[in-house]
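User: I've been trying to design a sequence by hand for this structure and keep getting stuck. Would you show me what you'd pick, starting by listing the structure so we're on the same page?

Assistant: Good idea, let's start from the same input. This is the structure you sent:
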């Protein structure tokens, strides 16, 4: 498996492909990482401000206003050259186009889950996302997993079975979010580090913009658009979807550049923890025993992945130390 693929799989499963010590973390990187995941964590509360707009209308606005915000960022950062460079590679455009479709599926599912009382399921999706990444490493990248990783996969599958049987329905919101974002991350990794966060998001939203604009135009012609007809607060909240979408991605890009992958992997659980707490304590979603058992199994799987990643990181650092000592003789 190539180095990029290994880095992608390792970054989400805590494997320390970057042996940089976590004892002296970059404060700016840590602040950016925490900011990104805190913003993602409170998104369910933000989307409740957009009612009575439906999920598709919200996503259409999210796409268009994100594109506007990206244009501002590209202008301020003088990054239009990097944006234009993306179009010189047909492969890059193709990968980002497919990534845009997966991003739209992920966004739509998340907004639907938020507005239909499935915030807890959305949190579950992002809890199991690292486990889905491990599964993709096996199925797509032909990665050989270690024993603890296999056990973690087994616990996660058992969790889905427990929730499905106990609640009486497949947690499709969680599975759709986990797989769409997992494959999205894989595609973005295949693009490599040649495309920055702002140019990449600009291209993805540009791909989706014609469909989004066409849908909003149809809504207006049909007299069903909510923008401007439900008060200034809701209208500005729809405009703000561009900021609330692009800002955490920019924070994340800066954090990923400054922090070890293992630290970024640990920070990613801030978002689903916040979403879970919001769903249970603020939105008062029900948590029958089967859900608690399912979440418990997923949390056990994540602990196993964390332990495995720490062990793998120590092993790599020890091996690298031995190699350096041998070369210095």
């Amino acid at each position: 498996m190539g180095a990029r693929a290994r880095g992608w799989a390792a970054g989400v499963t805590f494997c320390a492909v970057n042996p940089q010590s976590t004892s002296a973390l970059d404060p700016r990187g840590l602040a950016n990482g925490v900011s990104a995941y805190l913003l993602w964590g409170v998104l369910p509360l933000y989307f409740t401000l957009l009612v009575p707009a439906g999920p598709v209308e919200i996503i259409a606005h999210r796409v268009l206003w994100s594109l506007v915000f990206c244009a501002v960022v590209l202008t301020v950062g003088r990054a239009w050259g990097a944006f234009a460079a993306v179009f010189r590679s047909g492969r890059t455009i193709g990968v980002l186009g497919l990534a845009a479709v997966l991003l739209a599926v992920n966004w739509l599912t998340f907004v639907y889950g938020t507005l239909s009382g499935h915030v807890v399921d959305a949190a579950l999706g992002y809890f199991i996302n690292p486990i889905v990444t491990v599964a993709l490493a096996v199925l797509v990248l032909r990665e050989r997993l270690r024993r603890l990783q296999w056990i973690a996969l087994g616990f996660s599958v058992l969790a889905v079975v427990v929730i499905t049987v106990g609640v009486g329905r497949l947690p499709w919101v969680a599975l759709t979010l986990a797989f769409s974002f997992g494959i999205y991350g894989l595609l973005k990794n295949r693009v490599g580090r040649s495309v920055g966060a702002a140019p990449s998001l600009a291209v993805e939203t540009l791909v989706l913009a014609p469909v989004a604009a066409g849908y909003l135009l149809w809504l207006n012609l049909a007299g069903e658009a909510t923008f401007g007809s439900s008060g200034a607060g809701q209208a500005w909240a729809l405009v703000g979807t561009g900021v609330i979408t692009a800002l955490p991605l920019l924070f994340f890009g800066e954090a990923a550049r400054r922090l070890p992958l293992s630290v970024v992997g640990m920070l990613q659980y801030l978002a689903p923890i916040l979403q879970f707490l919001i769903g249970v304590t603020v939105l008062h979603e029900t948590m029958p025993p089967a859900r608690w058992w399912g979440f418990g199994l997923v949390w056990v799987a994540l602990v196993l992945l964390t332990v495995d990643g720490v062990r793998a990181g120590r092993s790599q650092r020890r091996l690298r130390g031995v190699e350096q000592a041998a070369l210095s003789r």
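That's my pick for every position. To get oriented when you compare it with your attempt: Residues 289-328 form the longest helix (40 residues). The chain has one domain: 27-312.
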